[in-house]
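Work Package 3 (structural annotation) set out to generate three-dimensional models for the target panel prioritized at the project kickoff. During this period the team completed the workflow that converts sequence records into C-alpha cells, so that structures can be stored uniformly alongside our sequence database. As a representative example, we reproduce one entry of 110 residues exactly as it appears in the project archive.
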Amino acid sequence: MRNTILQIRLVHTVIFWILSSCVVYALFSGIANRVTGWTWIAVGLLFVESVVLVASGWTCPLTILAERQGAVRGAVADIFLPKWLADRIFPICGTAYGVALVLIVWRVFR
C-alpha cells in the first residue's frame, strides 16, 4: 500500500506529541527532582530519536518520505502543526531536552 501524505502527517504528528511529552516529562523530572524509571524511558526514546535524526542528516525520515510522496520541500507539509511552530521544533525541543539532561544528571549525581 502506498503511503499518502495524510497518513504520513498523522503518524508524524502522533510521534511528535509522544516525543514532546517525553521532553516535558524529562524536564519536569529534572526540575522536581523526581527521576524515576519513566524518566529514563523518556530520555531513552529521545536518545533514539536523536540517533535517527543524526543518521538521516538532521531531517526527519518522515519528512523525507513525505517529500517522496510529493510534499513540497520546506513547506512542512508532513505534520499537523502551525508552520511557525514546525519551523522551530528543533531549537525549542532540543534546548528543553538539553536542559532536562543537565538537570537529571545533576539530580542523580549530587
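The helical segments are 5-32, 37-55, 61-68, 83-86, 89-109.
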